[in-house]
Amino acid sequence: MRKYVVSTLLIVIFLVLGTSIYCNAQSMEDSVKGIDIKIVYDPYTDYGIVTYEILFSNTMENAMINLPLVADNINNIINVTGSEGQVFPYTYIDENTSITILFNNTNTLTITYEISGFMNEVGINAYSGILDLSPLSGINVSVEIVLPDIFNVSTDPDNSYVEYDNGLTIIKINNPDIYAIYIEKSLFATTTTATTTTTTATTTSSILSPPITSTTSPTATTTTTAPPPTTTTTTTTTTTTSPSTLSPGGTLGLSPFMIGLIIVVLAVAVLIALLLRR
Question: What is the pTM of this model?
Fold first, then answer.
């Protein structure tokens, strides 16, 4: 009789713990608004820093999350912090570049880490790389890749867009997928005479690179130097497509159902062991 009571209590405890973990995981996943990822990478030196931010719709208490990190060659996890700057413990698994974080009392998680090997040189001032966002499928993801020069950019699939700002190239992606990225330093420039009928071209050129002016006579002509017109077209036609809001995302890490199932299996195993001992 005593063994029966003990086994019953153990089963109840396991079921309560399993239900608690399931509900907590489900609540956390429903609270994920999205993930913002910023990759600042220098292809010339093959070094970059990634800022990986998870956004929650409310403040999370006593929670745990497991998720994959982008980029394969992660050299060092700098820190994992919350919305108030608090530092949280984590476990990083190098084999699948995933991280498990225990956190409390925060509505954001920010993971900062160093990378290398993000792109390979495939020609003179030309580089290519793969960005795999497919593990984040079903989640609202926003990615920025910042490159320290003016590059012509192409991606496959091509549902990305490019901006230029103060000598930087910024690639923006909002759809989780596997991307092949090719960049090539812009080597050619065109010279045009600034007039009142070329307002758009003049404005775009000032964003891409500082204008070069020269005075040769009282009737001076102002010339501007800009990257190829094809790059300018990409900028002007796609800058309005950036989403302004984030919506609830999908499942992160281990499925809550699987967690609950594991707990139940453990409870049954304990019960069988106790019965066999009788």
Answer: 0.61
